Amino acid sequence: MKRERLKLGLTVLALLIVVVGLSSVVVYSAINREEGSGDRVSGSDTFPLVAPPFVGVASAAEAEGGGPVAAAGTTFLEEEAGIAAYVNVGQQIDLEDAEMAFKSIETVSESYIIGEIDLPGLPEYVDPHAYVHKDGWIVTYYSNYAPVGKIMEWYEYDGGAITTTTLADAMHIICDEVEVNYAVIKNNIKYYDFEYPNANRMMLITDTVYGNQYQSDFFNLEIPIDCWLYEGSWSHYFSGDLYLPYGGYSVMSHKP
Fold first, then answer.
1. Burial class, 165, CB count within 10 angstroms (exposed 0-12 / middle 13-18 / buried 19+)
2. CA distances, 58 to each of 55, 67, 71, 85, 111 (Å)
3. Which helix (H) or strand (E) holds 114?
4. How far is Cα 138 from Cα 91, in angstroms, rounded to an integer?
5. What does the domain layout of the chain look like in residue ranges?
6. Are 194 and 32 in contact (CB under 8 A)?
7. Which of 86, 168, 174, 242 is in the most buried spot, having the most CB atoms within 10 Å?
């Protein structure tokens, strides 16, 4: 049973984009147009997208020739995965311990496990997949047909800075089971979009509105002309109060 939250009429809108920037520094302008105020939206953060070392390794011979070393069982990621987070925790992982983190398991081998991780406070269809390798690799990801907006972690988010993602929180759950200090490896987590290997950054922007169920708001996002937009993904979360004790969640995407 997933945990639920009760808040005072909170409506939250998130816009996430995945782009490739041609310049070394890209500045995004997010403008809240309510009554022409021009106020900034409530929170935003930019994440670089960096290919993991096992991407593009065609064979063991290539790895032995000085290239990156592929983790066993990762080739499926290039065919099935979309947005992903990955890290090597720097130690061996006991796969029997790792199994305890999964709500369901799809594949088990001597070297790795693939399955789904249950996230508290969110609908089941937001739960990400995870790949855990005994040599220390953890990859959490969504399928390439899923909107990238699922990465927005609404549970316990109250506006302001975006400090985590659903994929990072899934890693946290795994680390707790395999006795890895998440605080130590948190800053080493990197992101990559297997569906768009040329994308080099993504940006999350949130707009928060407090009011009744009829409250609305919107903002414009200006993207520099030297950036290519691969996907725009919108995620909306609504939570009620004691008089309206329900919440809502929806996510969609647009791929130019």
1. buried
2. 9, 10, 12, 22, 19
3. strand 112-116
4. 11
5. 10-254
6. no
7. 86
Closest CA to 204 of 187, 191, 185: 191
Q: Among residues 96, 93, 105, which one has the least CA distance to residue 130?
A: 105
What is the residue-level pLDDT of the chain in tens, covering all 256 positions? 343 333 334 444 555 544 443 333 333 444 444 444 434 455 567 888 999 988 864 333 333 444 445 677 788 898 899 999 999 999 999 999 999 999 999 999 999 999 999 999 888 999 999 999 999 999 999 999 998 989 998 888 877 788 899 999 999 999 999 999 999 999 999 999 999 888 888 888 887 776 666 666 666 777 777 778 888 888 887 765 544 444 577 787 777 6
Six-digit token pair at 91?
A: 């130690």
Phi-psi region of 38 (alpha: psi -120 to 50; beta: other; left: phi over 0): left
State the Cα–Cα distance between residues 234 and 253, nearest whole angstrom. 6
Number of Cβ within 10 Å of residue 46's Cβ equals 16
- Between CA 192 and CA 167 the distance in angstroms is 11
CA atoms within a 13 Å half-sphere pointing along the CA-CB vector of 221: 21
CA distance 207 to 196: 26
Which residues contact residue 59 at a Cβ distance below 8 angstroms, ignoring those fewer than 6 apart?
A: none
Query: CA 159 → CA 21, 44, 61, 150, 155, distances in Å?
Result: 27, 10, 49, 17, 11
- Please state, as a whole number, how many other Cβ atoms lie within 10 Å of the Cβ of residue 119: 22
